[in-house]
Amino acid sequence: MSGTVVLYLGERVIRVETGQAASFATMTPHTLRSDRGPAEILIILDHNGERSHLGT
């Protein structure tokens, strides 16, 4: 939505800037951090992602 984030996705490091999107399986080890200031992001999980994180 605004700002830039760095997405650590498994062994990969990806810069995601305003207007860009990233889509990945949430079972892949991942983390996000803002890069050079505040960032606002929108995260959408589908039912499969929700179930895998809840362990149901």
Give a structural overview.
This protein is α+β, with helices and mostly antiparallel strands and 56 residues long. It is built from 1 helix and 3 strands; from the N terminus they run βββα. The protein has one helix spanning 47-54, and strands at residues 5-9, 12-16, 30-34. A 3-stranded antiparallel β-sheet has the order 2-1-3, with no helix packed on it. A hairpin with a 2-residue loop joins strand 1 and strand 2 (12-16). The longest helix has 8 residues, at 47-54.
CA-based shape: globular
Give the distance, in angstroms, between the N- and C-terminal Cα atoms. 31 Å
If you compute it from the alpha carbons, what radius of gyration comes out, rounded to the nearest whole angstrom? 12 Å
- Specify the number of helices: 1
Q: What is the average per-residue confidence, as pLDDT, rounded to a whole number?
A: 86
- Secondary-structure element sequence? EEEH
Query: In terms of per-residue confidence, which ranges show pLDDT below 50 for 5 or more consecutive residues?
Result: none
Q: Helical proportion? A: 10-25%
